[in-house]
Amino acid sequence: MKDLQFARHRRLRSSDNMRALVRETHLHKEDLIYPIFVVEGHNIKNEVPSMPGVYHLSLDLLNAEMAEVMDLGIKSVIVFGVPNEKDEVGTQAYHDHGIVQKAIAQIKESFSDLVVIADTCLCQFTNHGHCGIVEEGQVLNDPTLDLLARTAVSQARAGADIIAPSNMMDGFVAAIRHGLDENGFEHIPVMSYAVKYSSAFYGPFRDAAHSSPQFGDRKTYQMDPANRQEALREAESDIMEGADFLIVKPALSYLDIIRDVKNNFNVPVVAYNVSGEYSMIKAAAQNGWINEKEIVMEMLVSMKRAGVDLIITYFSKDVARWLNEN
Known about the structure:
Elements: H1 16-21, E1 32-39, E2 45-47, E3 55-58, H2 59-72, E4 76-82, H3 91-94, H4 99-110, E5 115-120, E6 133-135, E7 138-140, H5 141-158, E8 162-165, H6 172-182, E9 191-196, H7 203-209, H8 229-241, E10 245-249, H9 255-264, E11 269-273, H10 275-286, H11 292-306, E12 310-313, H12 316-325
């Protein structure tokens, strides 16, 4: 045996400190973006049934939530709004006194250092649940672009630091970039949901956002999960139209896409660790089948290893606590 020549890889795994010394991929609190769901009303903190630990919050309880987020060391939130009133064209999405606009203004007034990202879409605000104007059962692309631009401008006017359009209409980045620039918001970046698949992992989110389509599905504008090259075409279009960040959604089943996007585009890449990914882990942990902390940290590190710079995740507060413990 003494004459055998072979590599001793275990030398670099001999202790906690040795493993930490050579660790290639790191997850930091600054990587986390925490999603929040804001609703109309007073003294509302209702847990989303399919998303344990995620709540609908009314504005009077929002500051306490943001104070906790800041205390944990999380630097950024993304705001989703659930309005009381909906109509065919999603008026409350671009109303200056809409729920998202009110939430953004309130957060920035009390927590000016927190980076506030506005989700920019119509589906939560339309009575049909689609991300655009609908005529005769069809989602119309070009007429929708004006409403998306109006929504983005109203969110920027309320104080949003970043606009994150999630609708997947063709040309949505160009329309929003033009609208922002025309209204004096050239400094506001666009975090595009550039690669958004038509995924079964979105179910719990639609429960949280009350945004399920009332007819049909979103397959005519969200991407086929079987496609890879299409993701690069979508991302390239958004870069050419002025996107500053690229989101890949979902994350866990699309790590190959994340790596492709990272390898091809020199902008920050964001993974959306979506509701279905979150709820499966929460359910298994509640049944005692898995170690939640270890599973979550392994999952998020896999996203960082695949190439993402930032992660939108409902686990943000849990992860920040675990990192603080360490």
